[in-house]
TrEMBL record:
InterPro entries: ARMT-1-like_metal-bd_sf, ARMT1, ARMT1-like_metal-bd. Belongs to the damage-control phosphatase family. Sugar phosphate phosphatase III subfamily. GO terms for biological process: DNA damage response. It catalyses: beta-D-fructose 6-phosphate = dihydroxyacetone + D-glyceraldehyde 3-phosphate; beta-D-fructose 1-phosphate + H2O = D-fructose + phosphate. One of its GO terms (molecular function) is phosphatase activity. Its cofactor is Mn(2+). The keyword Hydrolase applies. It holds the Pfam family ARMT1-like_dom. Keywords: Hydrolase, Manganese, Metal-binding. This is Damage-control phosphatase ARMT1-like metal-binding domain-containing protein. It comes from Streptomyces cadmiisoli. The keyword Metal-binding applies. Signal peptide: none annotated.
Length: 390
């Protein structure tokens, strides 16, 4: 793997990482503060986090935190006392969400234990008219060929990644039509070659956001099971709330209920997924490393062994992409295969572009994107990619 690209930090005012730490995180705290009638203690803790994350230093977890040792090994022992802006951006963002859960009492015995501070917004999105429209559109797929249906659901899952509630807090014009093709890399033929009809393999899907991303992810899984492109599927979600809208096991159940309660084809998918869960062809996993602040190159052995057994692992979303290729300012033409050689088995990234990290593009595409949009194509969410290392 090339090791020479600069690591992304949040220390440069005007940069995208800096804006996430200095603007998005405070906005998230304010949103959470308004979402529940937290008592004075929780409000004080949220206010303290607001000050700490913008002006203060990284603080250690409480001595009795259940995951204190884990976070120590993940870098907290090194980074405590330093500015949020001076440590790896991937790390400081991830630790911010851990501290947010601490502030709202998510892990402490008491009335807020286990409560997802982002749930109201997740549910509002799941219950929205746009979700109704997207589910109704499934009925129109019946007239397509099997391959066309496969492609439609792959693209549904890909573009579902734009439905990211944290991203919307700071996205400016993400609905602006792009002057260059929306898909900047498309290795979908390689992906389909890894998933032939009548395949007997296992798909791993590392999910990203709940709601309007998780629903199309589940639909893709349902389609691959129904078309016998895979025999089993394993869905990896987050063990606890993370990055505002990331999917947890509770969100999987909400999405599944949404499907089974819908009319038409959506309910057929919902029933198929329900059945697959009950007979073991679909498994949901929530590994602690999924909420970790480190790249996948540093994944623990048990996870490595799991992904090594996959026919292919689909990695969804922007954050997972950063964790997959390394959170560095790579030259955009650096081969995807070079940066993902560490991953145990074939891997496919499905992502809309919402951060500066990018690799695997050809020179012509990069030149056209830069000429048409300046640097905004990297972060605006208007472009997407399907990159595969077989
Ligand atoms: O939900 P996704 O696609 O992982 O996106 C996460 C978002 O958060 C970021 O990590 C910045 O906070 C960006 O990469 C992206 O905008």
């Amino acid at each position: 793997m090339p090791a020479t690209a600069p690591l992304l930090l949040g220390d440069e005012p005007g940069s995208f990482p800096h804006s996430v730490l200095a603007e998005r995180h405070p906005a998230i705290i304010r949103q959470v503060r308004g979402a529940f009638p937290y008592g004075p203690d929780r409000r004080r803790a949220l206010d303290a986090l607001l000050v700490s994350c913008t002006e203060g230093a990284i603080e250690p977890l409480p001595a009795d935190a259940h995951d204190r040792d884990r976070w120590g090994a993940w870098g907290l022992d090194t980074y405590a006392g330093r500015s949020w802006f001076d440590v790896p951006w991937l790390w400081s963002e991830s630790y911010f969400y851990r501290c947010l859960l601490e502030a709202v009492g998510h892990f402490a015995p008491g009335p807020w234990q286990g409560i997802d501070p982002f749930r109201p917004d997740k549910l509002a999105e799941l219950d929205s008219a746009r979700t109704d429209e997207e589910l109704a559109a499934l009925d129109g797929l019946a007239d397509l060929t099997a391959d066309e249906q496969d492609r439609a659901l792959l693209h549904g899952s890909l573009w579902g990644n734009r439905a990211d509630l944290g991203f919307r807090l700071s996205a400016e014009t993400s609905d602006t039509p792009a002057a260059v093709p929306a898909l900047v890399a498309d290795d979908s033929d390689t992906l389909w070659s890894l998933l032939p009809p009548s395949g007997a393999g296992t798909l791993y899907l590392i999910a990203d956001n709940a709601g309007r991303e998780l629903v199309p992810d589940l639909l893709l899984v349902s389609r691959l099971l129904a078309g016998s492109r895979v025999e089993r599927a394993v869905l990896h979600v987050k063990p606890h709330p993370y990055y505002v809208s990331d999917a947890t096991p509770a969100d999987v159940l909400d999405a599944l209920r949404r499907l089974t309660a819908a009319p038409g084809a959506a309910a057929t998918h919902g029933r198929r997924l329900w059945q697959a869960l009950t007979d073991g062809r679909l498994t949901v996993r929530a590994h602690p490393f999924s909420c970790g602040p480190l790249p996948y190159a540093e994944m623990p052995d048990d996870l490595r062994a799991e992904f090594a057994s996959a026919t292919v692992t689909i990695v969804k979303g922007d954050l997972n992409y950063r964790r997959l290729v390394g959170d560095r300012l790579w030259a955009p033409t650096t081969p995807f295969a070079d940066l993902t050689g560490h991953f145990p088995g074939p891997v496919a990234a499905l992502r809309t572009l919402k951060s500066d990290v990018i690799c695997g593009l050809d020179t012509r595409t990069v030149t056209a994107l830069d000429a048409a949009e300046g640097p905004r194509w990297r972060t605006g969410g208007t472009h997407a990619l399907i990159q595969v290392r077989a």
